[in-house]
Every structure is written in C-alpha cells, then in structure tokens.
From TrEMBL, chains A, E:
Molecular-function GO terms, alphabetical: ATP binding; ATP hydrolysis activity; transmembrane transporter activity
Organism of origin: Frigidibacter albus
Name of the protein in question: ATP-binding cassette domain-containing protein
Family from the record: Belongs to the ABC transporter superfamily.
Record's keyword annotation contains Zinc: no
Domain of life: Bacteria
Keyword list, A-Z: ATP-binding, Cell membrane, Membrane, Nucleotide-binding, Translocase, Transport
Presence of the UniProt keyword ATP-binding in the record: yes
TrEMBL record, chain B:
Cell compartment(s), UniProt: Cell inner membrane; Cell membrane
Family the entry assigns: Belongs to the binding-protein-dependent transport system permease family.
Transmembrane segments: 56-81, 90-114, 120-145, 187-214, 234-255
Membrane topology per record: Multi-pass membrane protein
Keyword presence, Phosphoprotein: no
Record's signal peptide: none
Domain ABC transmembrane type-1 stretches: 56-255
Protein source organism: Frigidibacter albus
Name under which the protein is recorded: ABC transporter permease subunit
TrEMBL record, chain C:
SUPFAM superfamilies, per the entry: MetI-like
Keyword Iron among UniProt keywords: no
Protein name: ABC transporter permease subunit
InterPro entries, sorted: MetI-like, MetI-like_sf
UniProt source species: Frigidibacter albus
Location within or outside the cell: Cell inner membrane; Cell membrane
Cellular component terms (Gene Ontology): plasma membrane
Keywords assigned by UniProt, alphabetized: Cell inner membrane, Cell membrane, Membrane, Transmembrane, Transmembrane helix, Transport
Similarity comment: Belongs to the binding-protein-dependent transport system permease family.
Gene3D superfamilies: MetI-like
C-alpha cells in the first residue's frame, strides 16, 4: 500500500465530530474518490492527509514506509488541487506551475524544462504567459492541476476541483482529468459529492456519511451491491419501497411483489429504471405526472407505494396523467437491505 | 415621473451643495492665490523661497516615513489579528482602532503625555525622555492616528484573502517566510497602496497635531496657518493651500487608480 | 515560525500600548488633584466641573452641529448614493471623486476657501451654519460611500425591477425597497458622520468665531492655555462622548460589510 | 448684550476676571478667545469687509499696524485723557490698557535641579536644553517684544536685528519650544520650565498657583511694553463694544488689572499688598521703554528675517 | 392569442445585437419555454416583454387587444420571477407576497385574504411570518413565485428560476412548479438553458440560438424532428457523424452506413443511445474510455467517425479500453439535416 491511514478522527475545536475513526488504504497508482453529501467529512479527511489539519490523537498516516503523521505540510510532497483553484494571482501561468519546483530549489534551467513539459501535457501552451485573471474557469482548472503535478507529488489530492464549473464544461473536464491521471499513473484522492463524477474518475469509490466511510469498492460493486440503504440511495438513486415483507413476498398498497428469497425483517429498495409498465404487472398505480426527457419518459406514480414511485419509461409514447397503469418489478432488481443499516 | 427623471432628481441636492460649497470656494481659493502683490508669480515665488521648499520637502519626508512606519506596524498587527483567534483579540482590536476619530489636537496631547516633560518617558528616563516637541514627536503623533486607519484597511483585505492560497503554497513546499513574500504581501498590495495613500494624505494635511505640539518644526499646514496669521498674507496661504491640495490629491488619485477605491473612516 | 509569531505579537502589543497608554494617562490626569505630583495628591472631579463650567456650551454646540450634519448628509447623501449606484459609469466616478476632494485637500485649505467666498456674509459667517457647511463637506463622502457600498452589494437593480413588475413606480421603489435595504449602510454612515463631526478640528479651527467654539476647538484652546489637569479632564469628557460612538460605528460598519459580501 | 473681543484669553493678564466682571458688573457677555496679537490682526484684516470682532486687544505695535490696515476706528473712552501720551493714538484708534515688563517666567520645580537663570545669555547653556520657550516672534506680539528685548540687550537696535537673530540661532541648539499661543498653563504645569513672558503672568503663578515660580528680569536688560485695545471698524455691536472699553478703563476695570499684577494704563495707585509682591524697583530699572512706532515699523521685516534665518 | 410579439429586436448600446427581429405568439394558458445556450438572447426577450428593456424601433407587443409596446413596467401587469428571486429582504414573506396587491391599492383586508390564499396554495404556511433571510433556496423560490402570482398577472415570466438551486432540489421544484402553473392555468414564459427543465415544464419550447428562435414546437417534436443541426445537437444531444453521403449510403472512416433515403448534400447526425454494439455491425471502432454510469456505460469510441463517437450501452458488462468493437446504427435513427442549416 502506498498510503495507509489508521484511526483518523477529527473533532473541531467547537466540538463538531467531523470524522469518526477511519481506516483507509490506497495502492500505488490508484485513484480513490471520496463521495458523500455535504458535511460528511470529505474535506476534513483530505486536509488531514495533506497535513493542513491535524487529526485527533492516535491517528497514523504512513506513506510507504515513512510515518508522516507529524510532518508539516510543506515537507509531505503531496500535491493539492483546491476547489477554488487557489492560483496565485500575482504570478503568470508559468510562475504558478513552476512555484513548487522553485521551492524545491531546482536550478532555473531544470525548472523551465519541467514547466514546459507539464504545460505541453496539459495543453496549456497558448496560455503559458498569461495572467491568471485572463483565464476561463476551465483553463484555470488545468493550470491548478499542472501546478500540483509539476513537482511530481507522491500523492495528488483534489477537493471538488470541478464543482465551480458549469455543467457542460464539467463533463468535458472530468473526462480530461481522468485521462491525465491515468496517463501519469498518479495516485490520487478525489473528493466530490457528484456520483457520476466519482464513478467516472475513480478506481474505487469510498462513500462517506456522517464522518464514516459507509462502503468502499469499485463503482459497479457499489451500484450493484450496496451494503447500506444510504449507499443504495446515494449511489444508485434507489427508492425505498416501504410496505411489509412476509417470507418472499412484499405487500404494497398497490399489490404484492415476489422477492428472490425470504427476507422477513428487511427493507426493500428499487431503482426507477427497474420499474416497468406491464399490462399484467402485479402493481396498480395512477399516473400523476409525465415528463418527456428525450431518451425516455419519467412517470410519477401514486398508489403503488406509500410515497410517489417513479418509473423511467423508454418508448415512443407514454400514458397520460390520470390514467391507471399496471407495473412490474423483477424480483432480482429489488435490493434487500437490513433496516438497521437503512437507518444510517 | 420616469425612473430616469427620478434618479436625476436624486442628484439635485448633492449638485447644489457641491457646487455652492465646494466647487465655487475652491475656484475662489485658486483665484485668491493670484490676488497678492506677486500675482500668479506667487507660485514661482514659492519654488524660489528656500523656506517654503524645505518645509514642503520636510512635510513630504515626515509623511512618507509615517506612511512606511504605519504600513509596517499595521500590516504586522493586522495579519497577526486576522490569522489568530485568541482570548482578548477583540479588546486588542478595539484598542488598535479606537483612536480612529481622535482629532489631531487630541493626538498631539497624547504625544505630550507620552513624551512631554511631564510625560511617561521623562518620568522613566528623567532628562532623556522628552521627544514630544521634536520632529520625532510629530512623527509619533502622525503615526498615532495612521495606525488605526491602515490597520482597518489591511485587515479588511487580509480577511478577503482565500486561505487556500496560503495552503496551496505550503503544499507546494513553501516555508512561512516564502508564503508571506510570495502570497500574502502580493495579495495585500492594493490594500497597502490604498492605506498608505490615506496615511500619507492625512499626514500631509494634519494641522491639529502640529498645532498642539507647537514645535518650531514647520510642516506645510502650519506654514499656511502662519502665513494667514502673519499679517494676513492670504494670497500666500491660498497658494500654499492649493499646492498642498494638489500634491495630496494627486497621491490619492494615483493610489486609487492603482488599487480601486478603498477608504477608512478618519478625522 | 514560533519566533515569527512571537515577533508579530510583540509588535501588535507594542502598537496597542502606544495607542492606549496616553489615553489612560489622560483619563487619570483628568481626575488627579495635581498631576505633577501624581496620583498621591488625590483624586477629584473638580477639573471636570471646571471644564463643564468653561466649555459646556462648546459640548452642546458640537452635539447640535453633529446632529444637524447628520440630517443634511442624510438628505443629500442617501439619494445621491442611490443615483450613483443606479448609474455606474465614468460620470458617476467623477462625481464621487469630486465630492471626495475634502478628504484629500487639507481642512485648512478648504476652510480658507469657504472663508474667502462666504466670510463676508455676516449673518451666515456668524451662525453655526457656517461650521455646519464645513462639517457636511468633510463627512458627506463617508455617508455616500457607506450607502453606496451596501447598495452595490444588494443587486439593487433586480430588486427594483422586482418591485416594478409588481406595480411600484420610482418613488415608491425608493422608499419601499432602496432605503430599507440600504439601512445598514445608512446606519454605519450616520455613526461615522456623527463621530467625525464631533471630532472635526482642521476646518472648524478656521471657521469658528469666539462665540461658536466646538468641542475640539475648545480642546485645542485648553491644551494651549489651561493646566494639564483641565486639559485632561476635557479630553476625558471627549472620550466619554466619542468612544461609545466609535464602538457603535465599528459594530455598524462590520455589519454593513458583512451584508455587502 | 454680546460683544466679541479678539485675543482676550482667560489665562493671560487675568482676562478671566475681567471678562467675568464685564458680565457681572456691566452686563456684557464676551466669550474668551485664544488668539495672539498677530492672529487677531490678520483675522480682522481677513474679515475687513464684514468684521466679526467688536474690540481687539494686542501689543502696542500691532495696534499701530491696525491703523495702517484700516481695521480699527477711533474711540476715546472715559479716562482716555489720563493715559500718558505715547501710550495712546491721539485719535483714539488705540490706547493702552496696561503695561507689562518682559522677562523670564520660570517654573523652578521643573528645572530639574538647574539654577534659576539670571541672564538672557544663560539660556543657551546645555543645562537648559529643551527647557526654554518663547512665543513665535513672527506671529505673537510677546514673541516680538522678546526679540526686541534680547536684541537691545546684546547691542542691537530697531534698525539692526542682527544680535537677536544670532541669539535665537544660538538658542536653537538648545531645542527651544516655540508655541504660537499664550502658554501660561504650560509653564505652570512644568511643560515649559522657562518662558519669555511678562511679569504679570509670572506673579500670578507665583502668588496664586501652588508651586515654585519665579520672575527674572535678565541681567542684560529688557523692555517694557504697553498692551492696547481698539474699537474695530464697522464693529457689529459698536455700542456694546464702547461700553466694554469704557468699563475696562474705568476705576473698577483698572483695579482688576492691578489685582492681577498689571501696571494699569491710567495712573491708578497699586494697592500696597500688591506692590509688595513685585520685584524691587532697582531690578525694574533694567527695563526700558522703546519707540513703539519704530518698533511697529520694524516688525514685519523682522518677522520675515526670523522665519528665513532662524533654523 | 393572448400575447403577440412582432418584430422584436434589440441592439444594446455597446452594439451587441442581442436579438434579431423575432415574432412569437402565445395562447391563453400556454406555457412556453425559451431554451438556448448562454448569451442567445433569452433574458433580453423576456425583459422586453416585461418592459424592463426597450426593444429597437418597429417592435410591437400586444396583449389581447392592448398595445403595450410603450407601457412602463409597473403598468403592464406581468408577473416576473427572477433568477436571483429578487425578494425584498426588508419585508417578511407576507410582506413580499402582499406587495403587488398593496401597489394596486387594495384595502388591507382584501390583501390579507388574498395573501393567505396564495400562501396556502404554495404551501408556505409555516414560513409566512419569517424573514426572507431565514428561508432556504427552495423556500425562497416558492415565495418568489407566490409574490408574482398574488396580483393575478396576465402573464408570468420566469427567468431561470431554478438555476440557483442545487441539482437535487432543482428536480423536485421543477415538478412542483410545473404542477402549480398548470393548476392555475397561467400563461407563462419560462427561460432556461437546461433542456430537461424546458421539456419537463413547457407545452411548447422555443429553441433560441444567436438572437433568433431556431425552432418552436412541443418537446417531442423538437426531439424527434429537429429542423436544424443546432436544435438536433442542443435538444437531442445528437453527434454529427461527418463522412460523405452518396445516395442512400454514408461513408465513414470505420465503415459504411445505410440511410433511409438518398440524401446527397445533406449532413447526418446520431444520438449516443442509438449507437449499438453489434457483433456484425457495419462500423469498426476502438474503445478509448469506458465510464460506468449506473444505469449504463458510456463508451468513447475512435476510428468509426472523424471525431470521438459515444455509445450508451446498457448491460451488465462493457468492453475494456483498447478493445476493438463493431457498431450498428439503425437507418431510421440517423437524422438527416441540411448542411447550410447545420452551420447555424
Ligand atoms: N474549521 C472547522 N471548524 C469547525 N467545524 C468544521 C470546520 N470545518 C468543517 N467543520 C465541520 O465538520 C463537518 C465536516 O466538514 P467537511 O468540510 O469535512 O465536509 P465535506 O464533506 O467536505 O462537505 P462539503 O461537501 O460541503 O464540502 C461539517 O459538519 C462541518 O461543519
Ligand atoms: N445590458 C447589456 N448591455 C450590453 N449587452 C448586453 C446586455 N445584456 C445582455 N447583453 C448581451 O446580449 C446578449 C444576449 O444576452 P441575454 O442576457 O439575453 O442572454 P441569455 O440568453 O439570457 O443568456 P444567459 O443564459 O447567460 O442568461 C449577450 O451577448 C449579452 O452579452
Ligand atoms: Mg468539502
Ligand atoms: Mg439570461
């Protein structure tokens, strides 16, 4: 393992327990994403790794064989990309990118060569001499990345580096960023609260909730086998079905669904894309709203479950609001999770 | 009434007041400076009278040194106060900003209390603690009222600096003094220029302090006052006023165009 | 790092001491029987009584002028700030720059200018209005800027457009939307105006007549010619008046600044 | 009734008592006013078109200049005739109200152990460093009177101010204080241990303030000068002003001066207890009168010279 | 027609031609969305209708039979919801909602009754007495809507009322807003640059581009039959295929596709969801990146067309980057558009 975190916790002076004791291991060249809702402790964990925040007593941070728990930031050799980019407005693009190298005391010529190289890699040639203020958001993001890259950090930390951008640019830069990170084989931790972003970039995603890592795994594992209701909801947009489970049957207001196995005492979840309109389906529901979304219609349904149930329907037409429809949900697409975990 | 008309109407009181009591008197002042025996040659006369020139130079020198000192002290204190939270910080901040509206006369008096014959320093170092009436006393007086002004401007700017900038520099391996040099000072530069300009302008125009200290060190406002009170040499007083106004306004204007408008309350 | 911090703290404390110590001295001197002999000579309110007798009228005059100054700057400054905020541009910048001249031109020069032009209108020259004009000149830019910065921060245009689509004409909008939302700026500006007016000396010294001594003129007077204890007692009274105002002003501008972020 | 006097400072020549008496006995309210002679005159010149002041009080030479500037008008109050010739303008444009003799007003306690100086020349000694004060000779009449006094003491005359200029330049090495306004209180409080000032101010401190004060008539000699008053031309309240001037020259008025150690302009007998408090007459013999008209004539030129030559 | 716009153009003082002469008709109770990229003139058009901006000479705005072209804002009786909401921070929720009624000079009692009614409709009861600053973004949005509703405007204008909200809240409020507008049968114009939002809310969508209305129609019509390449791209996320059309054949670098009809001189477009992995498909391509997006994989492909081609692939697994795959695109899913229009 390149980076080993043991027992990392953080209580802020005010008493907020931002992070409960957490362990995490990251392999060489791996990209791990910290995904979770606002306030769950993502930034806190990242800043502790960077050395910008000190963890509560008992923590241990190892980098390969070095114990860096008490090393000051400037000696940790971690690169960091900030949400606000934190580019130095008083330096040009070149100046920013070369700053870390200058701090390492490299000779001028070597710095120049390395800066040129990074500028080329990040396709920043046209802007190299510009002032930071003369760059667009996307260009700034690339400079911030280049600046963090340049000193060849052992570990790159990125705190929501895309969240200040608008949606279109974000998608594009997300792909570029993923490509760059892989190209260099950089070990990186990427913080985000956007599920798509986390999945698109990371090898493994650590889903965080209220100061804990709720589950860590590949995007597919998280999506297909969420271990807690929180992960099911946050990563897969699953809807709780509610109702009552008796053996292999789920009794709902609109009908009864079959389950793959007896699951008494558990809770059932389903994704909107797994709810199908089926002429002879076991559930009855009333259409309350229909939205055409291009590739599909999103249909809001009442009466099937206690809450509104959504169905993503592909096809050339859709039922009208007010109509009554029948629905089917395949037993294997129903997620069964422990209710105590569902409380998380 | 249309919106445009209403907005125009809102400017009417200001226009009337500013014309009557600012524009016209200033024009009158300029005219008055040319009504002496020397006519408009009075400005030429100022430039060829060593006494006026030395005073001008002295005034500028004192103001410049005060500006530098105030910037150094207030930047140090301002950065310290923005970046550290501790018990007593609020009190310290109040102490440092309270003299903001002390008139120059009061400040002069404060300096007498510190460095006069009866002052604190003379009590501690008898015979060696009298500085109130020297140019150093004047300097301290100007420093006294410049510190709060500069401090407020610097702190306002320091609070706006994104803490991530400093953190970014540190993750790139910069030690504290490099962070200060490469990140903080450049980020504060516009505020420092603005605050410095205000300190300079205030020192240039300060009259009350010199008046209270009543030293025989001449600064331009004192000379203007003397010209006015020495057989009412109104033309010369007006000409010197015009000169002083142009120099200080010019400095402020330069600073403002460099740094955008920033202003701290002051008397 | 540690040493750097200690040094910073030292400078901060030194600066604070420099500003605070003489004010304490002056407060003490104002209630000491004989400052030359020190506190041992005993404490007394006698000097304050003397000051009151000699200068009470100047204190009231200053308060009166400060309030009048506040009214005038409100009437002139608030609408002007609104107009300037509504029409940003080169011209507005120029107007702002012009009314800010009294901050750059020494008070003595301004006073001289006023005296030159209006000194011969005796009714005016001998009335408090003459001093008032000087104070308004000096404080107006503070009011305008204070209000303007708050207005600039609240997206005034959109708020007004909101009111317009709901049927409000320009005058209604000014009183329903502009003024209430500029209140923090108006308050901060008002406190600044009052504080500065009470402390104004540079202009007033030239503008006043013997019958119309304001507080700082009286202070200068007492510094020049009264015994130290009386001067100190007078300064003490000045502090008592100005310090609460200053604290309120700092609180109000901090609030206005928070708003404009 | 209100009237405005320019340069009637409460801490000088006991104007405080005079203003109080004016209020109580003549019903005239006059605010006290801290100017100096020069300031009073220039203010009057500046306000010539529309005067603020009704009466003015200043050193004699300033009074003479005031005529030239046309800012005063003749008025002969009751008792005018009793003022000796030479101490009044025959037309009544100015007239003396009291005399003073210039010397050194010393706060002995503030000398930090140094002996009380006896001569003008003593003041340049290092032991009096930062202890000497004199009012600005270019602006205040006291200052000018001091300059004339030292000038004569060192052999100059009203056409040759060289000795005075040299003296002030020597004194400059001792960092003197040069206030522009009456500084009685500063001597009393010890801020200025030695001030060029009049006997009356020094005696008032010596006998009325708790402390150790002395008046010194310097060994090289000095001058005595009258202080005069005028009615301002186009005074806003001429009738009140005339009443005030009448009062000041009346017996009651002159008596107030005498109680304040001032030698009155009218030949009013000094009360015995007051007379006993003055320095002996033998000392006063060193104080001479000068040609006030010539002194007035030389004032402006000297002021210029002082400003440009004394550093 | 309730609202008739004729010849509306706008040239800003700086010379920007924000709007080219535009006609638009809106029927009673209809909800029309103005959809387009940033800077295309949506806000300008809306503000001209509101009276907040004056159109260039020659414009005509009629409301039923009134010519309101030169009426000042405050007399037009249009309601407006601003992107920033523009709620009056100095008034409470009630104060804001009642302001328009107060301006109409209604008696106090009548105002109160109407405000209560609107508050109930917008489910704002719990917040009625609160200060504006004590509301969340979503609550503010509802107050802004209620305020604009209250005086019963003839027309409601909404300028990106949801864009200040975060994604989750936005989806929810979009649905609520659509329901409210329909419930009241309000005639409304809704500006947005979000395609989903436009489609979810509007009866008809006017797609704008560079100061013009490029196409106006129902969401389905725009999606299924875009008339310009711009609309195809902006509304349907269609990708230009490039290549060369000869008769009914499209020649591409990776192979040749069949078209439904001879289309010489035209341009071909396709949507990512219409590109299928097919073992014997006519196109060959190399996989460059694969992103797991939960419901599907997004696969970036090179070699098939000149640019990168994307394919949305549903299934349990996806090819790996570097593999070569074959693709099929059904002829009826290829959009054929005029190239001169494609230049728009
Ligand atoms: N300096 C601080 N002092 C006190 N509490 C803090 C501090 N920084 C963060 N917190 C609290 O710690 C918790 C975790 O904060 P953190 O910034 O790590 O969350 P996050 O997951 O990064 O959220 P976001 O997505 O909003 O950035 C939150 O409750 C936050 O309010
Ligand atoms: N007040 C103005 N002065 C000059 N140009 C303006 C003004 N307002 C808008 N423009 C310009 O007019 C064009 C259209 O602007 P408009 O605000 O209508 O676009 P929009 O479609 O609403 O864009 P967005 O989605 O960014 O809000 C843009 O090029 C813009 O820069
Ligand atoms: Mg965070
Ligand atoms: Mg817009």
């Amino acid at each position: 393992m390149t980076l080993t975190l043991r027992n990392i916790a953080k209580t802020y002076p005010g008493g907020t327990r931002a992070l409960l004791p957490t362990d995490l291991d990251i392999a060489e060249g791996e990209i791990v994403s910290l995904l979770g809702p606002s306030g769950c402790g993502k930034t806190t964990l990242l800043r502790i790794i960077a050395g910008l925040e000190t963890a509560d007593a008992g923590a241990e941070i190892r980098f390969k064989d070095d114990d860096i728990t008490h090393q000051p930031v400037e000696r940790r050799k971690v690169g960091m990309v900030f949400q606000s980019y934190a580019l130095f407005p008083n330096m040009s693009v070149r100046g920013n990118i070369g700053y870390g190298l200058k701090m390492q005391g490299l000779p001028r010529a070597q710095i120049d060569a390395r800066v040129d190289e990074v500028i080329a890699l990040c396709r920043l040639e046209p802007y190299a001499g510009r002032a930071i203020t003369a760059l667009s958001g996307g260009q700034r993001q690339r400079v911030a990345l280049a600046r963090a890259f340049a000193p060849r950090p052992r570990l790159l930390l990125l705190d929501e580096p895309l969240s200040a951008l608008d949606a279109a640019l974000r998608g594009q830069l997300r792909d570029e960023l993923a490509a760059l990170l892989r190209q260099f084989g950089i070990t990186a931790i990427f913080v985000t609260h956007d599920q798509d972003e986390a999945m698109a970039i990371a090898d493994r995603v650590a889903v965080m909730s209220q100061g804990r890592v709720a589950q860590i795994g590949t995007p597919e594992a998280l999506y297909r086998a969420p271990q807690t209701a929180f992960v099911a909801r946050f990563v897969g947009n699953s809807m709780p079905l509610g109702g009552r489970i008796e053996g292999s049957q789920l009794h709902l207001p609109g009908g009864t669904l079959a389950l793959t196995a007896p699951s008494d005492g558990k809770a059932a979840f389903v994704r909107a894309e797994d709810v199908r309109l089926a002429e002879h389906g076991p559930l009855t529901a009333r259409v309350t709203a229909v939205t055409f979304l291009g590739t599909h219609y999103r249909i809001a349904l009442s009466g099937a479950t206690e809450d509104t149930l959504f169905c993503l329907h592909q096809g050339q037409s859709a039922p009208k609001p007010g109509e009554t429809v029948r629905l089917a949900i395949a037993p294997q697409s129903i997620l069964i999770l422990s209710p105590e975990k569902a409380a998380a | 009434m249309s919106t445009r008309q209403f907005v125009a109407l809102c400017l009417v009181p200001l226009a009337i007041f500013a014309l009557t009591f600012l524009a016209l008197p200033l024009v009158r002042l300029v005219l008055a400076s040319g009504e002496g025996e020397a006519g408009w040659g009075i400005y030429w006369q100022i430039l060829h009278t060593p006494r006026y020139l030395t005073t001008l130079v002295q005034t500028v020198l004192v103001s410049v040194s005060v500006t530098i000192a105030a910037l150094a002290v207030s930047t140090t204190a301002g950065l310290f106060l923005t970046r550290n939270r501790f018990r007593g910080r609020a009190v310290l901040l109040s102490i440092l900003t309270l003299p903001l509206a002390f008139p120059g006369v009061v400040v002069g008096f404060m300096i007498i209390l510190l460095g006069g014959r009866q002052g604190l320093f003379n009590a501690i170092f008898p015979g060696h603690g009298v500085f109130a009436y020297s140019i150093f006393g004047l300097f301290l007086g100007y420093l006294y009222f410049s510190i709060p002004r500069v401090l407020l401007t610097v702190m306002a700017a320091a609070e706006k600096i994104d803490p991530a900038l400093e953190e970014a520099a540190r993750t790139l391996g910069a030690p504290s003094h490099r962070v200060l040099r490469d990140v903080l000072i450049p980020a504060l530069a516009p505020a420092l220029v603005a605050a410095g300009a205000i300190a300079f302008a205030t020192a240039m125009g300060a009259f009350g302090t010199a008046f209270t200290l009543a030293t025989n060190i001449d600064v331009l406002p004192m000379v203007i006052y003397t010209e006015f009170t020495l057989s009412a040499n109104i033309a010369m007083a007006a000409a010197l006023s015009v000169l002083l106004g142009i120099v200080t306004w010019g400095m402020l204007f330069l600073a403002r165009s460099f740094s955008g408008s920033t202003i701290a309350a002051g008397g | 790092m540690r040493i750097g911090k200690a040094l910073q703290l030292a400078v901060t404390l030194l600066a604070a001491a420099f500003l605070l110590v003489p004010t304490i001295q002056s407060v003490l001197a104002g209630v000491t029987v004989n400052y030359f002999q020190g506190i041992r000579s005993g404490l007394t309110l006698e000097w304050i009584a003397v000051v009151w007798e000699l200068y009470a009228s100047s204190i009231f005059l200053s308060l009166g002028i400060a309030l009048a100054c506040l009214c005038v700057t409100l009437v002139i400054g608030v609408p002007a700030a609104y107009a300037l905020a509504r029409s940003p541009g080169r011209l507005s910048r120029a107007v702002e720059e012009f009314i800010s001249l009294p901050l750059a031109i020494p008070g003595l020069a301004l006073a001289l200018a006023l005296l030159q032009l209006y000194g011969s209108y005796k009714g005016f020259r001998m009335s408090p209005a003459f001093i008032l004009v000087g104070h308004v000149l000096y404080t107006l830019p503070f009011m305008v800027r204070s209000v303007q910065s708050v207005l600039a921060a609240i997206d005034l245009r959109t708020l007004e457009e909101g009111a317009a689509t709901l049927g409000a004409g320009p005058v209604r909008r000014f009183f329903d939307v502009v003024v209430p939302n500029a209140l923090p700026g108006i308050l901060a500006g008002a406190l600044t105006v009052v504080t500065l007016s009470i402390g104004e000396f540079n202009l007033t010294w030239m503008l006043h007549t013997p019958f119309l001594k304001t507080l700082p003129v009286g202070l200068a007077d007492s510094y020049a010619s009264m015994r130290l204890e009386i001067a100190s007692a007078y300064t003490l009274i000045f502090f008592v008046m100005i310090v609460p105002l200053l604290l309120a002003m700092q609180w109000a501008s901090a609030r206005a600044q928070r708003m404009s972020q | 009734e209100d009237a405005v006097c320019y340069n009637c400072p409460p801490e000088w020549a006991d104007w405080a008592s005079m203003l109080k008496a004016l209020d109580e006995q003549a019903g005239i309210t006059m605010p006290h006013d801290n100017k100096n002679s020069g300031q009073a005159l220039s203010q009057m010149i500046a306000e010539k078109a529309s005067p603020v002041a009704d009466v003015a009080y200043y050193g004699v030479t300033t009074g003479i200049q005031a005529i030239k500037e046309g800012v005063v008008q003749p008025y002969k109050p009751a008792g005018f005739d009793e003022i000796p010739d030479g101490l009044k303008d025959p037309e009544g444009n100015w007239f003396a109200v009291h005399y003073g003799t210039l010397g050194m007003f010393v706060n002995v306690d503030a000398l930090a152990g140094a002996p009380v100086p006896q001569c003008w020349a003593d003041l340049a000694k290092p032991e009096y460093k930062a202890m000497v004060g004199y009012l600005d000779p270019a602006s205040a009449f006291v200052g000018y009177a001091g300059a004339v006094a030292v000038n004569q003491a060192f052999g100059g005359d009203l056409t040759n101010f060289g000795p005075a200029i040299k003296y002030f330049n020597d004194l400059a090495a001792n960092s003197p204080l040069v206030p522009k306004q009456t500084s009685y209180a500063r001597v009393v409080s010890g801020e200025i241990p030695i001030l060029f000032d009049y006997d009356f101010n020094a005696y008032r401190a010596k006998y009325n303030e708790g402390g150790n004060y002395e008046f010194v008539l310097p060994c090289e000699g000095t001058i005595r000068v009258p202080y005069v008053m005028s009615l301002v031309a186009n005074a806003p309240h001429p009738e009140t002003a005339k009443k005030a001037l009448d009062f000041i020259l009346s017996d009651e008025g002159q008596a107030i001066w005498t109680n304040a150690y001032l030698k009155p302009a009218r030949p009013v007998e000094l009360p015995a207890d007051v007379a006993g408090r003055f320095l002996p007459d033998s000392d006063y013999e060193r104080a001479v009168a000068v040609d006030y008209a010539a002194m007035a004539a030389a004032q402006a030129a000297f002021g210029e010279r002082y400003l440009s030559e004394v550093k």
